Amino acid sequence: xxxxxxxxxxxxxxxxxxxxxxxxxxxGKGIFVLIGRNGSGKTTMVRILSTxxxxxxxxxTIDGVNVVENPAEIRNRIAIVPQEARTINxxxxxxxxxxxxxxxxxxxxxxxQRASNALEDLxxxxxxxxxxxxxxxxxxxxxxVATVLASEADIVFLDEPTTGLxxxxxxxxxxxxxxxxxxxxxxxxxxxxxxxxxxxDEIGILDVGRMVRIGTLQSLxxxxxxxxxxxxxxxxQFSMPRVERGxxxxxxxxxxxxxxxxxxxxxxxxxxxxxTRFTINPVSLxxxxxxxxxxxDNMAGTVGGEDDGC
Length: 310
Ligand SMILES: Nc1ncnc2c1ncn2[C@@H]1O[C@H](COP(=O)(O)OP(=O)(O)O)[C@@H](O)[C@H]1O
Ligand SMILES: [Mg+2]
What we know:
Radius of gyration: 22 Å
Bound molecules: adenosine-5'-diphosphate, magnesium ion
Strand order of the largest sheet: 6-7-8-3-9-10
CATH class of the largest domain: Alpha Beta
Helix content: 25-40%
Number of domains: 2
Largest sheet: 6 strands, mixed
CATH topology of the largest domain: Rossmann fold
Strand content: 15-25%
Keywords: ATP-binding, Nucleotide-binding, Transport
Protein name: ABC transporter ATP-binding protein
Structural class: alpha/beta
CATH superfamily of the largest domain: P-loop containing nucleotide triphosphate hydrolases
Distance between the termini: 28 Å
InterPro entries: AAA+_ATPase, ABC_transporter-like_ATP-bd, ABC_transporter-like_CS, ABC_transporter_ATP-binding, P-loop_NTPase
GO molecular function: ATP binding; ATP hydrolysis activity
Family: Belongs to the ABC transporter superfamily.
Number of strands: 14
């Protein structure tokens, strides 16, 4: 169980709170995914939970242990791949994982065995002795993830591990994370909403340092008033059906309607009658995020656009 109470972080003399009184409790089982635009505070949260950074105020406990007061106790249990982590070019995947495990206190024999198993597990066995610099971006990420998974840590923090990966590598990663979460807790951040939808047992939505909503996908769905999403691409002449119970968003690409089942049915019928192209779906995490965070310009399938910095 991870519990945060009034967690606040102000960097230096900044007038802005990177985290602003964040309070939540999560089970610490399976996969927790923290989503939010760039700058919403995801990395700050990960750095505090993983004992790298002290909060300005508030408390954090992991299984009852206070993270700020007893960091050493927490460190034995956690492993982290920070957002900015890079492999060292002149090392091999095997050397990368092996040296990390030695640093964590494993014997040479056990470190070697664990490193080799983890690389094999992630399909990296045949590259174990290639130089990291010869590997693709996706494979380099796998090396970092294999390295932490080779450890004994039962809580693994991965800060945007899939940012910038191609769709196939990303899906391979999902498989790895699903397997990993069978016997470990994975705390993942991402700005890909479909990733959160595909992987998360629980989801937290962070915006401007505040936890806007937290829960299972099902409970997030229930927490908004609408259950259907209609999208009408621009570039068509159509008369906009009346929407009584719902929200309508206009963007450069589409008109987006969130509404209740009965109205969704009526609107669909009207649109179909006039030959208008549209799609209708039960609300997705993207719809929920869109509704809670708002602003068409904030969304283009991903949160925060294509920037893989921050
Ligand atoms: N080391 C730092 N010093 C000053 N401000 C920072 C630092 N790290 C992050 N911030 C600021 O804190 C806010 C949250 O950043 P961050 O936690 O990195 O968000 P995210 O990971 O969601 O992109 C942003 O406004 C960012 O500019
Ligand atoms: Mg970040």
